[in-house]
Amino acid sequence: MKTALGTVLITEDELRRRIGEMGRQISAEYAGRTVTFVGILKGSFVFLADLIRSVSSELHIEVDFMSVSSYGDATTTSGTVHIEKDLGISIEGKDVIIVEDIVDTGLTLLHVYNIFSARGARSLRVAALLEKPGNSKYNRPLDYVGFKIPNKFVVGFGLDYAQVYRNLPDIRVLDEI
Ligand code: IMP
Ligand code: MG
Questions:
Q1: H/E element holding 45?
Q2: Where is pLDDT greater, at 107 or 129?
Q3: Are 174 and 143 within 8 A, CB to CB?
Q4: Residues 169, 8: contact at Cβ < 8 Å?
Q5: Of 44, 70, 79, 90, whose CB has the highest number of CB atoms within 10 Å?
Q6: 82-85 and 60-69: which strand pairing?
Q7: Which residues are catalytic?
Q8: Is the distance from the beta carbon of residue 19 to the nearest atom of ligand 1 less than 6 Å?
């Protein structure tokens, strides 16, 4: 498939403002607790970096990452998810926020959520930068959503197409040409 970078869907400024709001909301809701942020690699690392710096410095946080694969290099989601890199810490009894770059079918999230609840997290919420309309597999509302976007393939701000474009400072549509 031949592709080209298309229009900017979400600007740097909009990203900064919205992630700031999400951080303030998390700070208020988790005041006095320790929050364990778990980023789903690789796409979430840019969002996670901004999100943790927008939560209050009074909030104690932990960060870890998990890598799961469901996508390969294609732009359609396959039905299986497997763990490529697991957490380095225990989440038992912890207040966990799963951090996702984008929720499309919700399949990745459904799997991660089920794994984490089986491991005995005290509470489990989800922060996703982007949500596509096809989110049907996860089947419950996301706790924190940056932006709802149309059903287009997007790149930038950590999101890739075949490992390219993660470095773009904004979110853009990838067009087929
Ligand atoms: P889901 O399991 O269908 O919800 O897919 C989630 C994963 O697919 C995300 O964490 C992304 O890595 C990838 N993904 C889904 N849509 C896009 C997109 O538009 N651009 C880049 N990656 C995407
Ligand atoms: Mg991802």
A1: helix 45-54
A2: 129
A3: no
A4: no
A5: 44
A6: antiparallel
A7: 104
A8: no
Return the closest-CA partner of residue 122 out of 8, 49, 30.
30
The pLDDT mean for the chain works out to: 92
Whether the CB of 27 sits within 6 Å of ligand 1: no
Ligand 1 atom closest to the Cα of residue 153 is: 19
Q: Which tokens hold the place of 177?
A: 């040409």
Residue 81 CA: which ligand 1 atom is closest? 2
pLDDT, tens digit, 9 for 90 and up, residues 25-68: 999 999 999 999 999 999 999 999 999 999 999 999 999 999 99
Task: Please give the distance, rounded to the nearest whole angstrom, from the Cα atom of residue 46 to the centre of ligand 2.
Answer: 11
Q: Is the CB of 107 under 6 A from ligand 1?
A: yes
Task: Tell whether ligand 1 has an atom less than 6 A from the beta carbon of residue 103.
Answer: yes
As a whole number of angstroms, the distance between CA 86 and CA 79 comes to 20
